[in-house]
TrEMBL record:
Family as reported in the entry's similarity comment: Belongs to the 4-hydroxybenzoyl-CoA thioesterase family.
Gene: ybgC
Keyword Ribonucleoprotein: no
Alphabetical list of PANTHER family matching this protein: 4-HYDROXYBENZOYL-COA THIOESTERASE FAMILY MEMBER, ACYL-COA THIOESTER HYDROLASE YBGC
Xref: Pfam families: 4HBT_2 (PF13279)
Protein name: Tol-pal system-associated acyl-CoA thioesterase
Gene3D superfamilies reported in the protein's UniProt record: Hotdog Thioesterase
Family annotation (InterPro entries): 4-hydroxybenzoyl-CoA_TE, HotDog_dom_sf, Tol-Pal_acyl-CoA_thioesterase, YbgC/YbaW
Organism of provenance: Natronospira elongata
Amino acid sequence: MSDLFEWPVRVYYEDTDVGGVVYYANYLRFMERARTEWLRQLGFEQDELIRDDGVLFAVAAAEVRYRAPARFNDLLHVTAAVTEQRRSRIIFEQKVYRPADGAHLTDGIITVACLDAERFRPRPLPDSMQRILFA
């Protein structure tokens, strides 16, 4: 549904376990960074959305498949593509790969809900976002 967005991520020592392999939960952090940068390139800052529109985003569901390990100091690329969008949620397909050898490391299907920042209840995406996403 949307163009593929891609963001580089370097693996730091803090991202790894004692064996120098990326700890599994950190792939979710990498995916979060890519979605944040995707939103930023569309012209939206999350702190401004909270302040000006009274909305925030929360992961409602995450399905992750691990294919191969990343290691300390690897340069990774994380992709994000919108596969479904509704009034109050966006579903992303995300991938993590290592460009140096083309290794496909991780896949994720991430559902993000738009919430009222005060009540933490679902609410429609701001009109400014709907105009871009539903165009």
